[in-house]
């Protein structure tokens, strides 16, 4: 099977402007709306949201590769990394991952080869991996599945002797002042990087960090894109393959660019809803600060931490007792007080345990 890097058109990536334009317009509109919501947020809300998004991006990017990180460790490391912007001490792998996420969002100037190699070192901090922080020294194949004695090769990356030159061409393109809309530039950068597959491992995660860096050159992505990609990862892999076909005058990246823009739009929609929820949640607690005792605050905080879908389910007397770790009589008094203060509204639905709607 002839690979796309063996084509005489390599590495000229092109796309169908007419086919892409409506998808780009949708993405740009929703991106603008998200940025508008952020512009109206207070500094504390915005700082909390950005911290959440960096944590989500790290967790989701690893989850795409089937690796589950510890949420609390990543969050603690991200908080430390934000606090010490000049470089927090790296004592464990979660610190290195947080440093990678921050580096991608705060890269100074175009991404260089040495930046990518440093990201690779951070990605595999404390782990033995071949060619750590350097271009790979062996052939690599992308396979659909593997069984004893056979495997289905989806894509064969360029041989290692070609990787340095290909990466030099790629980083030179990143440094150019190209008149491309940022989302399209990010899509092509990701497709090109993944087509080279320059590292021994971690190419997907480095490639998604690269997307963050391309956006950060103009405006950091105000939500987690990898969280949406993780939900659609089979389509993601298919789109990468579809974007590696010869077209008229270049490698036709249109299928991947269209998929990327649509995924970006869906991620932006989710990001906008998340930002609006956070604002409503914080306003709720400010509004009712004088109405809540420690038990009530603990129970409501636990519910809001699970997201808007959980809040919509409301609160039952039994659930309140469990979260607040209190007795039935105390729970009854607490819930009655919350109802009187306008925090809760008794549900009309029947059942063995009285239930309430949360008014936020």
UniProtKB/TrEMBL annotation:
Occurrences of domain Fido (ranges): 111-262
Keyword ATP-binding: yes
Residue sites binding ATP per the record: 201-208, 236-237
SUPFAM superfamilies tied to this protein: Fic-like
Keyword annotations from UniProtKB, A to Z: ATP-binding, Nucleotide-binding
Gene3D superfamilies hit by this protein: Fido-like domain
MF (Gene Ontology): ATP binding
Positions of the catalytic residues: 197
Descriptive protein name: Fic family protein
Protein source organism: Yoonia maritima
